[in-house]
Design a protein that fits this description.
- The complex is a heterodimer of chains A (115) and B (110).
- Chain A is mainly beta.
- Chain A is 0% helix and 50% strand.
- In chain A, strands 2, 4, 5, 6, 9, 10 and 11 form a seven-stranded mixed β-sheet that branches. Chain A has a four-stranded antiparallel β-sheet with strand order 1-3-8-7, with no helix packed on it.
- In chain A, a hairpin with a 2-residue loop joins strand 5 and strand 6.
- Chain A is globular.
- The termini of chain A are far apart.
- With 110 residues, chain B is mainly β.
- Chain B has no helices and eleven strands.
- In chain B, a hairpin with a 5-residue loop joins strand 4 and strand 5.
- The radius of gyration of chain B is 13 Å and the shape is globular.
- Chain B starts with a strand and ends with a strand.
- Classes of the chains: A mainly beta (115), B mainly beta (110).
- Chains A and B meet through strand 4, strand 5 and strand 9 of A and strand 5 and strand 10 of B.
Chain lengths: 115, 110
């Protein structure tokens, strides 16, 4: 069955370290998204991509970067982790084409703690 | 920017109806969505409504949209303990840039 996976599921790191969170989908979806979930804020969009070599900044992109070298993967990198980046991170994908009825499929999430 | 607001918590008894409310600011949103998040999991799309509709029913779920007041609600009939979860409303249009609310935690007690 097609799916979307995230790794690691849990990560503890130290302030200032570089961290990369992986996201992999097997639906061959064009669109991929990264969100962070924080209490009182819901989900906020970090970065998104509409296809290979395409990346765009979301609402809370400072301190994060992404790259899209193939259809299946959109890794999220924290260049220099800060305590404010402690959060649960969700990756999502959708078929694309601009149809608002396309469902976004979410991964299980990565809980990141920055000490 | 776009803002989507929800109450944080709702508690109901099993068998009762639950109504989860949401307000949004972007009147240009083409679709409005309800997602469900179970503990330790990602979000799953429950239902959506097109912005020119007033109501949509899908089994136990009823979505009501008041476009004038920018108010969206999700009614769950005969609420079960398995409905306990966090429910997010989201607004969006083309190309799937969704703006999510803060989420409402629904607790269903036996």
């Amino acid at each position: 069955d097609a799916e979307i996976t995230q790794s690691p599921r849990h990560k503890i790191t130290e302030t200032g370290r570089q961290v990369t969170l992986a996201c992999h989908q097997t639906w061959n979806h064009n669109n991929m998204f990264w969100y962070r979930q924080d209490l009182g804020h819901g989900l906020r969009l970090i970065h998104y991509s509409y296809g290979v070599q395409d990346t765009n900044k979301g609402e809370v992109s400072d301190g994060y970067s992404v790259s899209r070298s193939n259809t299946e993967d959109l890794p999220l990198t924290l260049e220099s982790a800060a305590s404010s980046q402690t959060s649960v991170y969700f990756c999502a994908s959708s078929d694309g084409g601009g149809d608002p009825t396309d469902t976004q499929y979410f991964g299980p999430g990565t809980r990141l703690t920055v000490l | 920017g776009e803002d989507v607001e929800q109450s944080l918590f709702l508690s109901v008894r099993e068998g009762d109806s639950s109504v989860i409310n949401c307000t949004y600011t972007d009147s240009s949103s083409t679709y409005l969505y309800w997602y469900k998040q179970e503990p330790g999991a990602g979000l799953q799309l429950l239902t959506y409504i097109f912005s020119n509709m007033d109501m949509k029913q899908d089994q136990r779920l009823t979505v009501l949209l008041n476009k004038k007041d920018k108010h969206l609600s999700l009614r769950i009939a005969d609420t079960q303990t398995g409905d306990s979860a966090i429910y997010f409303c989201a607004s969006g249009g083309g190309f799937q840039k969704l703006v999510f609310g803060t989420g409402t935690r629904l607790l269903v007690s036996p």
